Known about the structure:
Elements: E1 3-5, E2 8-10, E3 13-17, E4 24-28, E5 31-35, H1 50-73, E6 79-90, E7 106-117, H2 123-132, H3 137-143
Antiparallel strand pairs: 1-2, 3-4, 4-5, 6-7
Amino acid sequence: xxxxxxxxxxxxxxxxxxxxxxxxxxxxxxxxxxxxxxxxxxxxxxxxxxxxxxxxxxxxxxxxxxxxxxxxxxxxxxxxxxxxxxxxxxxxxxxxxxxxxxxxxxxxxxxxxxxxxxxxxxxxxxxxxxxxxxxxxxxxxxxxxxxxxxxxxxx
Length: 155
């Protein structure tokens, strides 16, 4: 479960990997999941790859954010379908104009296709929903400034 610490929401997860290649047990806010890698790289394919889990988290967060927004506005959005893919590409092979100024070498490209369901939505509502799609918390974490504090223990 998420908890509040000093007025901020704190999310917690743990991961454990033993000698099994590469089956990793996750516990995320009381829910147990397995992450793994495919057999082609030595895994047993008992669960999704970690990057796929991240894409799933982004898709879920985007959908939840849009559902909350449409409900709060009382807009007739019936549903949202979100398709995501991740690709690591050489910067000099990427044709987009959305590359961060300090990018070098390789960049991660996440493509998100959002299909809004609801025939009664106005074009203005659909446009606004499109803006909100890029504002979910996971999107902000992935695309924003993050700080990683790693503490190493032995034993």
